[in-house]
Design goal:
Layout: E1 12-14, E2 17-23, H1 37-54, H2 59-65, E3 69-79, E4 88-98, E5 102-111, E6 114-126, H3 137-153
Antiparallel strand pairs: 1-2, 2-4, 3-6, 4-5, 5-6
InterPro entries: 4-hydroxybenzoyl-CoA_TE (IPR050563), HotDog_dom_sf (IPR029069), YbgC/YbaW (IPR006684)
Keywords: Hydrolase
Protein name: Tol-pal system-associated acyl-CoA thioesterase
Length: 154
Amino acid sequence: MTSPLDQPYRGGFVGPEHRFALTVYFEDTDTAGIVYYANYLKFMERARSDMLRAAEVDQRGALEAGTGVYAVAEAHVRYLRPAKLGDDLVIVSTLDEVRAASVRIHQRVMRGDELCAQGRITAAFLTPDGRPTRQPREWVARFEDIRSKTKEQA
């Protein structure tokens, strides 16, 4: 018999924003109990992967079919306040730009109303041999649908 506690946590969309919550564990921190800087990238990666799942982008299916896969082509991170052991964080992701072969995502690492870090990540869609290629049209359409929710709220 399974229980809801046996299911992994899933984030989701609130309008155009994808929200992914997590808690800072001991393994995420340095000896002072502060989140090690590279772990913010891991938190953002987890949130982006969950955002793609929530947008019904089947990365695993595309990989297995030999269609292609996303790879981070560029990452810019700005650290503003340290997150600490035991903090509950929310990674808020929004789609900044959708191009033929890439997507740029803005991500904020929030502790309540406090901004701890933010990043802009460009993920390129690559063929199995590593060359940029067009994303599946249905994925681009989903991304544009999500982005249109930003314009509706403005």
